[in-house]
Structure formats: C-alpha cells, structure tokens
C-alpha cells in the first residue's frame, strides 16, 4: 500500500511485527514501544519442556482433537494453560496435514 508521509513523500506503508517497526523510507528496524512506553515485546513465545511435548505428542497419537475434559486433564498434568494446549493441537494438526500434502 502506498501512503503519504508528513513530508509529502509517498512510500510503502509501515511494516509492523511483534518486535519492530520499519521506518518510512529506510530499511532500518527500530524496536516498537508499548502503550506504557517500554520497548519489550507485548508477547513472549513460550517454549515447552521436553516432558510437556512428550505428553502432548502422546495425547495427539490417541486423539487428533482435544476435548474439554482431556484439555483440562493435560493442563493440570503438564502445568500448561488450556488455551496453550488448544493452540498446540491446532498447530500440530496443521503441521500434520501439511506434511501429508508434501509427500504426495
């Protein structure tokens, strides 16, 4: 998209990500600031421990879709939130389907 800047130059729209903003006419990245003025990211990605991944993989082998009761049980056992378990299963199904398509 083309946008007008304050100086009247036309250029590409500002490119946003979780951590950086691309400045108007340059290719330099600067850290984004949060609403409170801090420069730390709004969200930090959680890495699962090997034990948590093993538990999630074992559950995925038995159930491709996680039900509410199983999600609660896994959350307690693995010390994870129910939401992170739901997202993990959703991402795993997507990777699994994508992997099947690549072998054909």
Describe the structure.
The relative contact order is 0.09. The longest helix has 22 residues, at 82-103. The protein is an alpha+beta fold and 104 residues long. The protein has a two-stranded antiparallel sheet with strand order 1-2. The protein has helices at residues 50-62, 68-78, 82-103, and strands spanning 2-4, 10-12, 20-22, 29-31. The chain is built from three helices and four strands, in the order ββββααα. Strand 1 and strand 2 form a beta hairpin.
Primary descriptors:
alpha+beta; 3 helices; 104 residues; 12% strand; extended; two-stranded antiparallel sheet; two-stranded antiparallel ribbon; single chain
Can you give me a brief rundown of this structure?
By secondary structure, the protein is an alpha+beta fold.
């Amino acid at each position: 998209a083309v946008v007008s800047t304050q100086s009247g130059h036309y250029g590409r729209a500002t490119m946003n990500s979780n951590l950086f903003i691309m400045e108007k006419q340059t290719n330099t990245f600067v850290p984004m600031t949060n609403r409170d003025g801090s420069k730390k990211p709004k969200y930090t990605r959680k890495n699962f421990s090997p034990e948590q991944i093993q538990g999630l993989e074992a559950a995925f082998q038995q159930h491709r879709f996680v039900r509410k009761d199983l999600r609660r049980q896994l959350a307690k056992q693995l010390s994870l939130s129910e939401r992170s378990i739901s997202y993990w299963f959703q991402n795993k199904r997507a990777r699994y389907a994508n992997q099947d398509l690549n072998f054909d």
